[in-house]
Amino acid sequence: MADQPAPASGPDLTQGVAPADFADGKLLGHVGDQEVLLVQSGTDIFAVDAHCTHYHGPLNDGLVVGTTVRCPWHHACFDVRSGEAVRAPALSPLACWRVEQRDGRVVVREKRDQPAPAAQVPADAPNKIVIVGGGAAGFAAAEMLRRRGYRGSIVMLSSDTAAPVDRPNLSKDYLAGAAPEDWVPLRPDGFYTESGIELRLEAEVAAIDTKARRVSLARGGDVAYDRLLLATGAEPVRLQTPGFDQPHVHTLRTLADSRAIIAAAKGARRALVIGASFIGLEVAASLRAREIEVHVVAPEKRPMERVLGSELGGFVRALHEQHGVVFHLEDTVAALDGKRATLKSGGTLDTDLVVVGVGVRPRLALAEQAGLAIDRGITVNAFLETSAAGVFAAGDIARWPDPHSGQNIRVEHWVVAERQGQTAALNMLGHREKYDAVPFFWSQHYDVPINYVGHAEQWDEIAIDGDIAAKDCLLKYRSKGRTLAVASIFRDLASLQAELEMERAIGGE
Length: 509
Ligand SMILES: Cc1cc2nc3c(=O)[nH]c(=O)nc-3n(C[C@H](O)[C@H](O)[C@H](O)COP(=O)(O)OP(=O)(O)OC[C@H]3O[C@@H](n4cnc5c(N)ncnc54)[C@H](O)[C@@H]3O)c2cc1C
Ligand code: FES
Known about the structure:
By secondary structure, the chain is of the alpha/beta class. It has 9 helices and 35 strands.
């Protein structure tokens, strides 16, 4: 018998519901076979698609704040009046329906035409914007410029061979073989031409002349700018250990890197992953999904301990061991002779494939050459301006004054890079918008997501609520009684609430 599609949840909203049926400002129902979420904001009620446009997260499990709804999975935020994705990682709007309130009933009518986002282009907006980098920050900036109605020239210069991709997927579903090719590009090829974004691939920028306001390409030629966004991201650290320059040794940053690992995994029996942090362990999980024997070698005592603490680190280790990963912790590879790795502790491991995930370095060469202020990253102010007039920086390269921690921080998070790109876009147009979003990242290991809000480089206490082993927990990283960051597993609503509390603590929304 053919599979029957799952019936849509909740009441038929075209038949009307009572406002008293709303819980926490939301009510899930359907219109035909489409799930629709009703959201109450004061006396107004809005109807939007019930699924996030990022990875289809269930917005009914999210948080309503004012006229927005926030996604439980990776904290995207939508304006329910227009459906607009006002905070990354979602970039596309939600579909909206017309709502009528009559005789004490809320009735959903026809789908509305997608309202156009409000234009925000001042009369003295620059003519030429150049973006160096075709990653999270660069793409989000270009998209936001067009979304806000900017009609001037946008040139996006990327040293990559591929148009902007969903980089987090490259170590997760895509590498595991669970994501089709068309999940990976952030937008289909036609988007750039249709949007008037001149995307130039394999276009490495070699120098910036901040006085003449021009960038020079490594392959020759200059591009003039009125405003410049640097979003060159980071590059994987490579090991200098003997043997690590061989072709079966990989790092992972680009789509080409992920494809090379997939090609090498075909026919491989055993893989060696160097490094037990996020990328290394996501790679380990994905290679296990391909039924390859995986050994992880790393110097630390527990995986991810530096970021998540020993309790969660211990859990992550046990989780990977349950899936068959073999750890060689407090150890390193002393030499790789062909396919035989010799460990510092003395043993040897034969391997078909090696993936090195030992961290990244921000790509600062351009900024250094241009004489920009640098402090372990490009120094930017709250508006993401660098020390050179008209030059902005965003994403993995930027160190910004984070109002939540009170420190100048630089992080390597997808959502932060995208949101910074969006803020930089508005500021390049002449707005003065401070970047004050609470840092957020997620990581996925098998079927276990870990969400993290805030920023804690050090803490004096971790308060654990729930049961880590049962995958139902919220950990608060505290210093002097103040919560700096919160990590959680399957406590999505609490994670969103923690983010909101951090926003409110600095007088945000
Ligand atoms: C495999 C993988 C998985 C990840 N998973 C997660 C995750 O689950 N959650 C999370 O929060 N973060 C994750 N991250 C981190 C996240 O992807 C980064 O923080 C984010 O991509 C940073 O965005 P960016 O725009 O600063 O840099 P990037 O996305 O790296 O983009 C940089 C761009 O600049 C280009 N470039 C560099 N130098 C030049 C030059 N001189 N001239 C022209 N172009 C140049 C590059 O080609 C690239 O297009 C992951 C990273 C990787 C590699
Ligand atoms: S699924 Fe909603 S933010 Fe990712």
